[in-house]
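Page header: ASSEMBLY MODEL / two components / 810 residues total.
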Amino acid sequence: MGRRRAPLVRALIAGTLLVMAAVPSASAPAPERLRVLTTLPDLWSITRAIVGDLGEVQVATRPGQNPHDLEIRPSQILLVKRAEILVRNGLDEDAWIDPVIESSGNPRLLRGSASVIEAVRGLAVLKIRTGAVDRSLGDVHPSGNPHFTLDPGTAPVVTANIVAGLSRLRPDLAEQLESNRQRFLDDLAAAARRWNETLAPYRGAPVVSYHDSWPYFYRAFGLDELGIIEDRPGVPPSPQHLASLIRQMRERRVKVVLVESWYATDTPAAVARAAGARVLVVPQSPGATKGTDTYIGHLDTLVTMLARALSE
Amino acid sequence: MHRHGYRLFVMLWLLVSSVGLATPGHAQDADALRRELETLRRQFSSVTQAYEERLKALSVRVEQLEASRVTALPATAPSAAAASSAAAAPVATTTAIAAPPVAPAAPPARPGSPAPPAPVAVAAVASAAPASESPSVGEMLTPRQPFALSTPGRVLLFDIGVSGDFVADLTSAKAERLQLGTFPGQENRFFPREVTLSLFGRVDPYASAVVRISAGEETSTNQPSSRDLNVNLDEANVTLLTLPLGTTARFGLMRPRFGTLNTVHQDDLPQVDRPDVLTQFFGPEELDGESGLEAFWVLPLPNYNELSLGVFNGDNEVAFGRGSLRDPLVMGRWRTFFELDDLGGLQLDFSAASGVTSDNLRNTVVGLGAKYKWMGSGSGLPIFTLAGEAIAGFRHLTAAEAGANGDRHVDRWGGYLYGQYDFDRRWATGLRGDWTQLPTASGHEWAISPYLQFKPSEFLRFRVQYKHTEGTGSVERSVNEVLLQGSFILGAHPTERF
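Prediction written out in full:
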């Protein structure tokens, strides 16, 4: 009887050992990786540079997607559900994430929570509307222009906010995060010197854009914002406005009309043609086109494309 | 001689003075001054220290208050670490729109000469332990301090929006006389279908709330000339956001989670009218205005799966009119979503509702819905949407409803399918087909509705829709209608959903 049981006992012992080998030891749990969600691709590229291999950074919008016309998709709810930290712009551009969070059952990411990082904190915001603000002005951002990451000079403050927020929740990673941040800023400083040299010949050059996305970029590189085709955000421009803009563009010999890749080019092309300028379709956010996945790669592309267009 | 005497006097005075300055008595005065200076320094140092301690105590107090209220403030301070960095500078130097950029409070570095990166104080960070986001039962039961930071009347703590939806139903004189149109009693009229005042926002760190009050023209089917502008409380519910196990729940008066289109508000419908199957099975007011409790979960699975379960009075006059929790209306929905990347997104939902009619008879309705949407890359345009829903009802009938064959149980169903193509941000066109049996009576009807939509902006929309309806049995009719719609949104409006 005992002999009959022996093979069974041996098989049970072998099976147990096999399972024990396969299952990770509970006594030495692997350190938990950061699970970060960013609302927009620019914050995704910056946060990814800071987090590095310490965790996973995801973005709630597709690169190249216009955040102004966003609709809530259930897949975004799932991303919010899984994240432990949210990095958001902090102005109106990603206010759509609030109902997503409320639907997700993840209260850690509710606005005002310690797990929510607002990148704008500490920055001087441009174009804050003063006086009466209503929809006659179009789909305006009452809190000011949210496209601050297009000025690389804002990176020290933005990255400090992100590192501070991440470190608050994971103090054990603070040193590594700060080290990653310093490396990112060093690389950015080197790239910024290169960008400055590239655009130095065009300082003061007048530029027109379709949407009001570029004031920080203009400020960073000394370009002159002559006008915006879409004078009221989200509303097609009036013929009077276009006529006035074209007249100014001719007078100032504007060479370039910047258009984000998610906008139709019909109207900008007509304006550019009438004013003797050319349309330059550019990726407004990292990842929208090939080779622009990183923050530096994205600005590299923007500066190179603009310099080439201005030189023609 | 006199002049020499004067010079001698001056020299002697200077000599005496200079000697006198070097005397021990003056040395003692200098020491006293030094001591006084040292005392002042010590006093200054102690005052500074006292102020630092006071500032530290206040900071700790602020952190404690913030930790206890978790999410009361609209914005999160970067952290104790960032407080010592440039990031802690006040946000947003207000700049007039035409004014040149104002130097920031904490000037960011210029390209090429970046400012030294703001150091992050690791020690300070380590001391700032994260507050627990989900309050414990003890915390929930502990009385909290009132929100003294808000200033009622000066700070708007919630969003306000008004939506207006105006419809015209143009049809034949016969259809008007017999009230055969999509909006019975309002044929060949331009009328305010629904003007809604919406108030929504956060109640506190743990809950949000929404209140919707609507007014619309209603016509008595018995007296077509009698038209009233009725004001109703459509929704008033609170959503609890910080419940355990990832649960979200709401209670109050609400539009319950059933099906695909039933959850959509009037002003967000894809066509002018609701699909016939929804109107037939739930009445012109749809499955709306139910009072009760509803909980929902996003399941921890690789794909999106949402489960909801609700218990309501059952106040729908057509489908569940019992209106008592002794025989509650119980409703559940499962919804899943597949992100197909470049190929778009697909949503599927399955719903079931079971309750008791006003005649105290059991009625169960199930729904199966699907919605597919493809968006062009880059601009997100054009957009192609294909969606449909099938509804089936299993209902016990009264003897009067049973009719000649005496069958007291009926299984009926119906559905719709529509496709829409958005050319650009302004123009879209679509086609919807309806087919439905009647939930209690015999007969069925079908309809076909092409439509065109124009949106000058995100907040203003016009539609024109042609609808041809053919009904048999107890809905014998053949009606041609042109439906015109103008709708607007004033103020805040929740973000559009998939």
